Every structure is written in C-alpha cells, then in structure tokens.
C-alpha cells in the first residue's frame, strides 16, 4: 500500500459491551458478555464456529438486537441508532460488493449517502483506492477482480467514510494461505496508520496472535478470557483458552498426580524436559517420537493420559527410544492449575 | 474421456427429442400455414413482395406502432401496480402478504369474452364508474376507450406476472448486499432504489419481456374492446375473413413471430453479464422489519386499493353471473340464481375436460420447459439456444394459426380404425401445451439460474450420474420455480379458447372456455356464460391452491423451505 | 384354420358394414353450424322426434372457423351438413367444391323471399328461413342522452345520432354485407355508397362479429345498432331494455343449409334438410327463442298476430330483383372498400361528419350561401369513390383478390391505394367543412 494522505481521526473511540445477553428464539447465543475495547486497539473476537463472535460483531453494527445489556460507542449507547446511523464501517465475509456498480461507485457509496459534495467524494474515493493500491481498477466491475482485490475494495469502501470503528468479519477466510499472511500484515499496517479502533473476527488463532493487540476468546456464547496474545498464552485462565491458543498438556488426578480439587495441571510441551525417573512425580513410557528438525517431539503416557514434550534438537545428542521410561521435569512456575 | 462422451450423448439425445417434439407440434404445423406469406397469391414462387407490401401499407405500419406502444405501456402500468405490493411483501413483516399472494394471482385467470364484457360494464363509457361519475361530477373517464382501454385491461391481466417476478427477484438478493449499504448509511426507499431494485432488475426484465411479447401478440383483448388497429387483431381478421385468401394475415403472423424472437434475444443480450443471481452467494432476501401501526394501516390501504382494481374484472364477472338484467346502470336491475342452475347441469363434462387438459398441458410444459432450461444452462451442446427461441415463438403464434396448422398436419394421419388423428382430444391438449410452454420455460430457466453448479458437481463428485443428480439435487431445488411455471401454465391453459375453437369436434370433448363461448353467442346466455366463467375461475384457483400446498409440504419434508 | 377365421372376420365385417349402411339414414348426423344453442337445441329435439333413430350432433363454430375446418378436413370428411346464415360462406364452400348439390323434395317452398332467391341456383345449398334487418336501440341510453327514436335508415345519418350508432363490418358479417349490397343495388353505386358513408359518419364502432352489435346495445355501450331482427327479439326476451323497428325499406337476408361433399351420412343429411323445409320444421322457426321467418308461406297462418310476413307485408317485399351474380362478382371489392374507406378510417370520417353537422346547425340559424356550397363540396368529397361500379366487378379487380393472372395489382396495393384515397378525401372534406363552419358562424 502506498501513500499516506488520509488523516487520522480526531480521536480514536472506545467500545464498551456491558452484560449483553442475546437469544434467537430458544437458542441463547450470547451469554453475559462484558468487554471493553480501548481506543485505537486492534481487537480480535476469536473462537470456534458457532461461538457467537460474528453475532457479537453484528450486534455492534446494528444487525442484531440484544435482549439485555448495553453497547456503548465512545460512551454513547448505540441501541437507539439504526445501522445506517452508527458510523461503524463493516467489511463482510463475502465482501458484499455491488455487482451493478464499478469499484469507484462502490467506494463512493457511503460518501454519497452522507451527501458530501462531488469534489470531496471524488477526492476521498481516490485516496481510499490509493491506500489499498487499487487506483488503476477504479472503473472495473467487481466481477472482473480477484478475491484479494475484491477484499481490498471492501476495505476501501469502509475506510472512505472515515468511520469511528472498523469491523472485519473473517476478512481473510476466502483468501489462499499465502495471501492471508500478506493481507493481514497490510490490514495491520493500515490500521496503525489510521489509528482506527478495529474489531477482527476470526477462528484462526495464528491470525489473532500475529496482528491483534488484545483478544477475546469466546466459546458457546461466553467470553472465556480477554488479554494480549502473550498473556493468553502464558496465563490462560481455563482449559478452553489454554488448548485453543497453542498446544497444551492437561493432567488430572486420574493420572496419578496430585491436583487440587476441580482443577487440572496444564503445561506447554516446550516447557517440559525429559529426565531420569528418580524423584520426578511425572513419569511414564515414551509412546511416540517425531523428529521435526529444530525440535523433537515425544509422546509420553502418564497415568491415563498422553502428554507431549518438545525438546530442541542438538546434533549428535542421543534421542530417547520408544518404550523407554522417562521422567518429565517441569519448572514450578510453568505449572498451571486451571479449573476444569 | 469416454465418460464425457456418453454424458454428452445422453444430452444430445435429449436435445434431439425436444427438437423433434417442437418440430412436430409447433414448427411444422405453423410452417404449413404461414408459408403462404412467402408466396405471391396465385403464383407459387417464393417471394418477399408481401413483406414489402406490409411495410408500404399505412394501416399495418400504424397497427405495428400501436402494438409496440400498447405493449410497452402495459409493462409500465403493470409494474407500477406491482411495485408497491412487491415492496410491501418482501421488505416488511406484513400479514397482508398472504392475501396478496393468493389473490394477486387471480387476474391471470380470466376467461375469454366474459372478462372484457364485465369490465365494460364496470369501466366502459356507460359502465358503473362512469355513470356514477357523470351523475355526481358531470364528467367521465375514458378507461376503456381505444388503446388506453387495451392498456388498462392488459395491465390488470398481466400484473401478477410482474408481481411474482419482481418479488422473486427481490427475495433472491444476498442479504449482505443490503447490510453493507445500511452500514454505509443508506436505508428505506433510498436503499431500495439504489441497491435492491438494480439487483432485482435482471429478474424483473426477464418477466417484463415475456409480458411485452404476450401483449404484443394478444388478439382477444383488443378485439373485444373493438380495437382493430393493432397488429395481432389485424392478423386474425385477415386470416378469418371468408372468401378472401389473403396472404397478409400470414405475413403479419411472421412479423409477430419475428418481434417475439427479437424481444427475447434483446432481453437476453441486456441481461448478459448481469446474472447477479448466480454471482451472489447467499440469497436470503432483504431483511424484513415490522410495520408500525400507522404504517400498517397505510400498507393495508394500498394493498386493498390495488387488489380492488386488479380484481375488478372478477367482481364484474360475479355480478354478471347473478344479474337478471344489467344494462346502462351502475348495478344490475336484480339478482337471480337461475344462471347457475342452468349451467350446473352441463358443466360437469366441461369441468372434467378442463381439468384434464390443463393439468396434462401444464405437466407437459413443465417437463419440456425444465428440460430445455437444463440443456441451455448446463450443457455446451451447439445450437441449444435455438430450442429456447423456438419454444418462445409459441407465444407469438396466433391460436387460430396453430389450430389450422394442426388440422393440416394431423388430419391426414389416420389411426388404424380410420378416424383421423386430429379428432382425438389429445391434439387439443398439445395445442394448449405448446401455447403455454414459454411460461413454464421462463420459470424453469429462472429457477435453474439460482442454483449454483457446485451443488451438482458435489453430487457427481460423490458418485451420482448426471441423471441421478438431476433427479435428487436439481429438481428438488427447482421445485419452487417449476411450480410457478406449472401454475401459470395451468391457469392460462384452463381458459384457452382460440385454438380450441378450431379443434374441438364434439361437445363431449369441450372445455369450459368453449362452453362459455357457445353461451355468449346469445343475449340470454350472458348471465350463464358469466356463471360458467366464475366456475372456471374458482376451479383454477382451487387447483392452484392445492398445488401450492402440495409443493410446500414436500419442500418442508425435505427441509428446503426458505 | 387361419383362413377360416379370416373368412369369418371378413364376413362379420361385411355384415357390420351392411348393417351400418342400413342404419345410415338414421344414426348420427353431424352438422357444423354458427347458430347458437337457442336455435339448435329446439330444432335438434324436433328433428330427432320427426326422424326416429336419428341423432343430430351439433358442432358450434363461428362461420369462418367452420369454413376453415371443412377445408382442412376434406380429405377425411366427418361432417354431413353446413348450416349458417351467411350466403357468402356457402359461396366459398361451393367454389372450393366442398358442397354436394341436392334438390329438396319438399313442395310449397317459395321461390323468393323478399328480394332473394331462396335456393342457390346451382342447387348446392338451400334456404330454409329468412330474417329482416332493422334498427335496435337501448331505451335507457336514449332516454339518458335525450335522443330521438329512429324510423328509417336515413334517420341514422342525421346529426342527433352522431357517435351513437353501431354496425358490424360487411367483411365479417355475411348478412350485413347483403344489406349493404342491397343498398348499392337499390340506390346505385355512387348514391348507395354516399348513403352508407353518411350513416357511417355517425358510427361509434364497427364490430368484427355480428353479435357484437346487439351485445353493445344490450349493455348500453352504444345507443343504436343495425341488426338482424332475431337478435333484437331474443334480447328483449332476455329482459334487456331494448326496442326494434323495421324501416319502411327493409332488407331480408336468408339462412341456408348445405350438404358437405363426401358426407359420411348423406341420407341423414338429406333427411335433415327435408325436415327443415317440412311444415313441422318451418313451424318450429316461429318459436320465440328462434324467431326466424319461414320460407313456406302457409306456415304464417300458425304465426302469432303481428308476426312479420314477407309474403304479405309491404315493407318486406323488397324493391327489386336482387342480382345475385352482380353481388358475387364484387363481393371482395365491396367488403374491402367498406373496410378501407370506413372501418379503418373511421376517425377522420367522423371528424369531417361532425363538423358538417355543426355547419348544418349553424346554417339553420343563419343561412349562408357560400358556407352551404362549401358544405356540399365537403359532402361530395366524402362520398367520392376510388373505383366505379364497373371496375368493382371487373376481372382485373377480382383477380387481385383471387391471385389470378389478370390482376392489375396485388390486393395489398389496392388496399393501400383506397386507404390513401379515403384519407386524402376526408382530410380535404374536413378542411372545407372547417371553412364552411367559420363562415356560417
């Protein structure tokens, strides 16, 4: 993306979601959701399909109505505002470009709705297209563009109106793997430049980790934990978060170790090492070994469960064999006891 | 490679079968009649001199432009009537939508002769409305005068077509298109105008072009209003003149066919690349919002007003069927059940025949129409477009030309016992079926366009042959569209008269429309004719309702209801 | 064994066929007719009673559909009789050799009724009834618009009747054609056309089927109609507020029946014709739902009082001997002239006529010689004809309609010529009339 003539909004805006409950008929889709999104943040709603993340996004945009709770945009309750007055720019998963309009007309749409003078509209359209690098395609129809280009038009269309907030509904899911990496970086760069508060809905933890400031991990309508990628990784608050972000080993009292009631022992494969069995509470036979180049991954049965241990590979080092009984050593600070 | 070979062999066989069908039941009969247009009377050599004469005759040129004008204005007015109703039923949670859906279809079911008589009694120069207007306000409105009268009647008659088309097109819009516009600040009528209507336009144009052609080729309505200076009536008058073997009637028939094909071709051209339906992923239609009480009242008022207008012919028909004498007065002099008593006896055989013929004809139409749509949209057979155009020309062929053509083509063919083929009632069914085929074809076409090819490819990928895929995937998904085609074909087939008049050979083979025609030849028969007309409308409405119910149930059973 | 069964089958078939022939006189008699159920039902009943064993199968079609049907099915004809009013249809069938000649055995049938010979001179079709033409009007319409009651044809050409009259086109109604032809023969070509155009200038509409006229009058769409009498009487019978009058010079038009060539049941067809002409059949015509005029003079003794009698009533006697050959020689020309000069030029004709009515009204108040002269010129322009009587009957013109070799031009060319002629004349007439009006006011 080139050029940087779009001005930062006067002031970035925060979003507050307080005690929201939303049901469709008898299906309770959002349960007691509480979230605060700071001005200028690149915030993610992360979770598996059906967790309610898109519904939450549509709630903010005004396409869904909650039964209880409030959504505050810059301190104002948005409930009385219909979607066309909320001034939140949304990029749809399908891009939703209008096939009967050119790229330029698509981008100009929101500006025309705001009754801006033609000169101003043309200028901002040109800027927006320039920002996403599609100036040359202004006269084309969406059907003539590739998936990636269409997505950029959708983005340009929303930023042209200089919204208070940017909402992205799984914007990368229709792109191929290579494009995803480059486009997500571009999105991040764009967001930084514009300083827009942005919400990014995704089911892919790598996307969330790499570009977002903070993440809300959702499962079955509830927010399980909110934090920076590192926080969520290092200090998951529960089993769901622990296993959703990165791989996690989970052991309970059924595996022959002492855990507090109602809790499980959780640790990451790369934090454990293999040792001799003496004096080590965790021990068991090696059931599997994978050589991964930089690391070696061992599967060890402990009690009734199987855990993974990853150790860096040093050339010449002797590897354990399948069947060997080993001890798994874990520094205490890496032992997490999380509620089941 | 071999698989692809057998696949296209099957398709080619199907295409050939359909081409044969169209050839035997449409092209050849019509050709035997209109070849006269290409010969000079008395000579035998092929010539285009008649067409030159056509262009040089002021009456024909005037008629041509009159027809174009009437057809275009009909589309405009029918759309004007349909648009508010389409808007209300697709955009809002509106209880009246059910009412609109059931009653909105009725104008299409208007028996010949009586409908126009009823309308004259209501809206004619000395009809109910004008008599009252003259008495109270001292002026009259020329609803039924000249070309405007034709436009008035035709707009009311074809309004359901446009309504159904427009509603379906609106319902097929991807919801996110609308939400994206709302997100950027648009709403209400502005959103409807900038986003919904343009996206619905292709579907609408497909239906509108059909209406244009149908009105252009309609003989009955202008003649009943005594408007002769339009192309189709001119053709009819010339073909049916006694004693003068005039080629001009057939020349005009050729012009009618050419215009029909040109219109279809032009609309296909305009729609090319604008197949929005197929590029959209979701459908889902516009989001519906609830109406506030004041808005509800307004909505009901609009709906009732429009429905009252488009159902006026049926109201007039009903009044006429109960009337003792209705002449130069706003309402009949008195009421009686005598007309119904008179027709109830004879009508059972007419009803049986009508149901039989219309169901068979509509069934044939749906099968052939669906097959043609499939061949055109899903195969790459060369020349498949010609099947579509050939079938569509059936709209333009005047019923009498088809009737005469059938007699010519089939009377010479004898069954083993010596009776001519043309005396069998099945020939009547075929004539009706061919004339209604374009409706079913367009409906099937639209339905198939909405279905993504990937749905079929997935089935084939999992081991289903093309035939099984069609049966298990395509047809269930097309049910809605095929039903719409069946219903339109059925409803219009039930009141078909012009070809029937030539082909019916005995009373026991006659449908309702024929019985009606016979009754309308005498002054005393008018009430009875109206009674028969009402019976026809009721029967068709019931059948349509049942068909809708049956399809809904089967859709629900398969979880396909939208 | 096989030969024996073949023989048996052949013998049985032979028996059946012979039996069939024996039943032929009775059995099914098929008739294609344009008459309505009101007419065919009572006659069918009476026929089946008079000829036991016979059943009449009625195929109701409008006249031209009937003719076309017979044409198309001649290779394997299944129809015995053609039964209609319009003699022109019979002429067409005769010329295409679709009729068989038959001389009825019935005696006591008149040679002529009114001006017309009852039967075809070559014996291909027979007249069985006649009807009179007259003027029908809607009482409510006339009352509401304060219009006069008509008595004569000429009344219809006067000012008060402007835009209130209806007629069916001669090209579409054989009986109307005969009426116009009678006017042309009675008054002469030029005067006859003048009269016709004067009346036509007052027309509201020209219908394309005979029944369209009474239908319009019944509904009150139109005030006056030039109709066949039985339409008026059956309308009155059905309760419509209409009245009817025979002008002092009335045309009578015949109704005919003919046997179709290669009829499957020739004997049955002949029986039907004999029945129609028998006293019983002729009496049936007097029934109120049928109300035709019998061609058997003695039947009128059984008729109710006041029933028109063409053999006694002065106004039904007819002025002259109708020249059927002349009529046939120019049928197509007369039909086409009417359509091209009147039917399809109705608006210009009416416009000129209206202005002339206004001129007359103004002149009645204050006379103006110049205006009067201009009005006469305008009327002459309207009355002008593109061809003479001689030309109308000439082989060249005839051939244009039949496609024969002698034609001077094609039918379409003739039509365009005549249409252009009318357009020009009417425009010129309107211009003159406008001038006259300005002067008269």
Protein model, in words:
The complex is a heterotrimer of chains A (340), B (562) and C (441). In chain A, 25% of the residues lie in helices and 31% in strands. Chain A contains 8 helices and 18 strands. The N terminus of chain A is likely disordered. Chain B has 24 helices and 2 strands. Chain B has 562 residues and is an all-alpha fold. Chain C folds into 2 domains: 191 residues, D-Maltodextrin-Binding Protein, domain 2 (3-Layer(aba) Sandwich), CATH 3.40.190.10; 237 residues, D-Maltodextrin-Binding Protein, domain 2, CATH 3.40.190. Chain C has 441 residues and is α/β, with parallel strands linked by helices. The chains are: A alpha+beta (340), B mainly alpha (562), C alpha/beta (441). At the B-C interface, helix 2, helix 5 and helix 18 of B face strand 2, helix 3, helix 4, helix 5 and strand 9 of C.
What can be said about this structure in brief?
Chain A is an alpha+beta fold and 340 residues long. Helices cover 25% and strands 31% of the residues of chain A.
Helix content of chain A: 10-25%
Query: Based on the structure given, which CATH architecture of the largest domain in chain B is correct?
Result: Orthogonal Bundle
Task: Give the topology string of chain A: H per helix, E per strand.
Answer: EEEHEEEHHHEHEHEEHHEEEEEEEE
Number of strands of chain B: 2
Largest interface: B-C, 64 and 77 residues
Total domain modules of chain B: 2
Mean pLDDT of chain B: 85
Radius of gyration of chain B: 24 Å
The level-1 CATH class of the largest domain in chain B:
Mainly Alpha
Helical segment count of chain A: 8
Look at the structure and name the CATH superfamily of the largest domain in chain B.
Answer: MetI-like
Give the biggest beta sheet of chain B: 2 strands, parallel
Q: Which residue ranges of chain A are poorly predicted, with pLDDT under 50 across at least 5 consecutive positions?
A: 1-5
Shape assignment of chain B:
globular
């Amino acid at each position: 993306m080139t050029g940087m003539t779009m001005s930062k909004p006067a002031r970035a805006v925060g979003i507050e979601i307080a005690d929201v409950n939303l049901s469709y008929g008898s299906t309770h889709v959002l349960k007691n959701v509480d979230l605060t999104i700071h001005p200028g943040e690149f915030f993610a709603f992360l979770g598996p399909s059906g967790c309610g993340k898109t519904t939450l996004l549509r709630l903010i945009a005004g396409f869904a109505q909650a039964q209880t709770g409030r959504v505050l945009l810059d301190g104002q309750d948005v409930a009385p505002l219909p979607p066309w007055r909320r001034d939140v720019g949304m990029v749809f998963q399908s891009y939703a470009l209008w096939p009967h309009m050119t790229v330029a007309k698509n981008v100009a749409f929101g500006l025309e709705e705001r009754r801006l003078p033609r000169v101003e509209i043309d200028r901002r359209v040109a800027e927006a297209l320039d920002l996403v690098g599609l100036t040359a395609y202004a006269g084309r129809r969406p059907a003539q563009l590739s998936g990636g280009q269409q997505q950029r038009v959708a983005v340009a269309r929303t930023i042209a109106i200089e919204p208070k907030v940017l909402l992205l509904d799984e914007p990368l899911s229709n792109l191929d793997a290579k494009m995803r990496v480059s486009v997500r970086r571009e999105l991040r760069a764009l967001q930084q430049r514009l300083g827009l508060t942005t919400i990014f809905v995704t089911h892919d933890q790598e996307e969330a980790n790499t570009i977002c400031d903070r993440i809300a991990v959702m499962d079955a309508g509830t927010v399980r934990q909110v934090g920076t990628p590192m926080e969520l990784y290092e200090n998951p608050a529960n089993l769901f978060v622990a296993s959703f972000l990165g791989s996690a080993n989970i052991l309970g009292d059924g595996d022959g170790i002492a855990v507090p009631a109602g809790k499980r022992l959780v640790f990451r494969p790369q934090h454990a090492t293999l040792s001799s069995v003496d004096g080590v509470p965790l021990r068991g036979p090696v059931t599997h070994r994978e050589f991964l180049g930089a690391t070696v991954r061992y599967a060890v049965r402990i009690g009734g469960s199987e855990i993974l241990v990853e150790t860096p590979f040093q050339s010449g080092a002797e590897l354990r064999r399948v069947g060997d009984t080993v001890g798994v050593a874990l520094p205490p600070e890496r032992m997490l006891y999380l509620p089941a | 490679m071999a698989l692809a070979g057998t696949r296209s062999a099957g398709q080619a066989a199907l295409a050939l079968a359909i081409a044969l069908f169209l050839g035997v039941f449409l092209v050849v009969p019509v050709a035997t009649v209109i070849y006269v247009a290409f010969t000079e009377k008395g000579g035998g050599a092929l010539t285009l001199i008649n067409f030159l004469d056509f262009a040089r005759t002021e009456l024909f040129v005037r008629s041509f432009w009159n027809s174009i004008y009437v057809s275009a204005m009909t589309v405009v007015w029918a759309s004007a009537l349909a648009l508010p109703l389409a808007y209300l039923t697709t955009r809002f949670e509106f209880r009246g939508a059910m009412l609109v859906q059931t009653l909105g279809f009725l104008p299409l079911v208007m028996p010949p002769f009586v409908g126009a008589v009823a309308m004259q009694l209501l809206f004619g120069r000395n009809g109910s409305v004008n008599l009252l207007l003259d008495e109270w306000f001292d002026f009259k409105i020329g609803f039924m005068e000249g070309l405007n009268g034709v436009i008035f009647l035709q707009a009311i008659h074809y309004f359901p077509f446009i309504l159904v088309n427009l509603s379906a097109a609106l319902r097929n819009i991807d919801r996110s298109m609308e939400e994206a516009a709302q997100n950027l600040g648009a709403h209400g009528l502005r959103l409807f105008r900038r986003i919904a209507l343009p996206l619905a336009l292709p579907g609408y144009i497909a239906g509108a072009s059909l209406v244009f052609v149908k009105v252009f080729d309609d003989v009955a309505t202008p003649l009943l209003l005594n408007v002769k200076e339009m192309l189709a009536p001119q053709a009819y008058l010339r073909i049916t003149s006694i004693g003068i073997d005039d080629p001009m009637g057939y020349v005009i028939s050729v012009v009618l066919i050419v215009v029909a094909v040109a219109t279809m071709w032009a609309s296909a051209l305009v729609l090319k690349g604008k197949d929005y339906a197929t590029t959209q992923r979701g459908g889902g239609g516009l989001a519906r919002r609830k109406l506030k009480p004041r808005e509800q009242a307004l909505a009901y008022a609009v709906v009732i007003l429009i429905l009252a207008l488009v159902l006026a012919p049926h109201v007039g028909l009903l009044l006429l069927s109960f009337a003792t004498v209705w002449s130069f007065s706003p309402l009949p002099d008195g009421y009686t059940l005598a007309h119904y008593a008179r027709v109830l006896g004879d009508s059972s055989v007419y009803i049986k025949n009508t149901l039989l013929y219309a169901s068979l004809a509509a069934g044939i139409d749906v099968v052939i129409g669906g097959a043609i749509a499939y061949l055109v949209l899903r195969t790459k057979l060369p020349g498949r477009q010609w099947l579509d155009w050939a079938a569509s020309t059936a709209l333009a062929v005047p019923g009498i030309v088809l009737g005469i053509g059938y007699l010519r083509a089939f009377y010479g063919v004898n069954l083993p016992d010596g009776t001519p083929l043309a005396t069998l009632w099945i020939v009547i069914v075929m004539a009706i079926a061919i004339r209604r085929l374009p409706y079913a074809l367009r409906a099937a076409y639209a339905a198939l366009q909405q279905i993504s090819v990937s749905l079929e490819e997935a089935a084939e990928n999992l081991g289903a042959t093309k035939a099984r895929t069609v049966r298990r995937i395509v047809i269930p998904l097309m049910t809605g569209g095929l039903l719409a085609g069946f219903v339109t074909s059925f409803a219009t087939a039930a009141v078909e008269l012009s070809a029937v008049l030539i082909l019916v050979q005995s009373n026991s083979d006659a449908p309702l429309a024929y019985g009606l025609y016979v009754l309308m030849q005498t002054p005393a028969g008018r009430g009875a004719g109206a009674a028969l007309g009402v019976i026809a409308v009721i029967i068709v409405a019931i059948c349509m309702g049942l068909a809708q119910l049956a399809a809904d149930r089967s859709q629900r059973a398969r979880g396909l209801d939208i | 064994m096989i030969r024996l069964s073949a023989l048996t089958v052949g013998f049985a078939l032979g028996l059946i066929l012979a039996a069939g022939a024996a039943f032929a006189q009775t059995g099914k008699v098929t008739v294609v007719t344009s008459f309505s159920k009101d007419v065919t039902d009572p006659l069918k009943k009476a026929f089946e009673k008079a000829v036991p064993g016979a059943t009449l199968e009625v195929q109701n079609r409008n006249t031209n559909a009937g003719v076309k049907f017979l044409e198309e099915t001649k290779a394997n004809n299944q129809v015995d009789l053609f039964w209609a009013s319009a003699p022109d249809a019979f002429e067409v069938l005769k010329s295409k050799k679709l009729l068989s000649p038959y001389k009825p055995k019935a005696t006591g049938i008149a040679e002529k009724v009114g001006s017309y010979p009852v039967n075809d001179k070559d014996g291909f079709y027979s007249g069985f009834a006649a009807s009179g033409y007259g003027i029908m009007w809607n009482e409510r319409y006339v009352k509401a618009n304060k219009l006069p009651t008509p008595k004569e044809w000429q009344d219809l050409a006067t000012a008060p009747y402007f835009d209130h009259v209806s007629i069916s086109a001669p090209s579409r109604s054989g009986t109307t054609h005969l009426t116009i032809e009678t006017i042309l023969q009675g008054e002469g070509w030029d005067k006859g056309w003048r009269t016709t155009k004067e009346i036509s200038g007052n027309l509201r509409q020209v219908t394309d089927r005979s029944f369209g006229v009474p239908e319009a009058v019944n509904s009150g769409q139109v005030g006056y109609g030039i109709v066949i009498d039985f339409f008026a009487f059956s309308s009155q019978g059905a309760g419509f507020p209409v009245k009817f009058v025979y002008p002092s010079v009335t045309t009578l038009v015949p109704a005919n029946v003919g046997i179709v060539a290669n009829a499957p049941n020739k004997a049955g067809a002949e029986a039907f014709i004999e029945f129609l002409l028998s006293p019983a059949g002729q009496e049936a015509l007097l029934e109120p739902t049928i109300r035709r005029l019998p061609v058997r003079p003695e039947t009128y003794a059984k008729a109710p009082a006041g029933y028109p009698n063409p053999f006694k009533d002065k106004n039904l006697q007819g002025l002259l001997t109708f020249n059927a050959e002349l009529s046939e020689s120019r049928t197509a020309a007369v039909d086409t002239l009417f359509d091209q000069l009147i039917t399809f030029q109705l608006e210009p004709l009416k416009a000129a006529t209206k202005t002339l009515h206004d001129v007359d009204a103004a002149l009645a108040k204050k006379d103006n010689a110049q205006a009067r002269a201009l009005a006469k010129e305008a009327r002459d322009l309207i009355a002008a004809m593109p061809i003479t009587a001689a030309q109308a009957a000439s082989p060249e013109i005839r051939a244009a309609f039949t496609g024969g070799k002698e034609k001077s031009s094609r039918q379409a060319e003739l039509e365009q010529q005549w249409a252009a002629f009318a357009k020009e004349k009417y425009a010129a007439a309107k211009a003159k009339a406008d001038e006259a009006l300005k002067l008269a006011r």
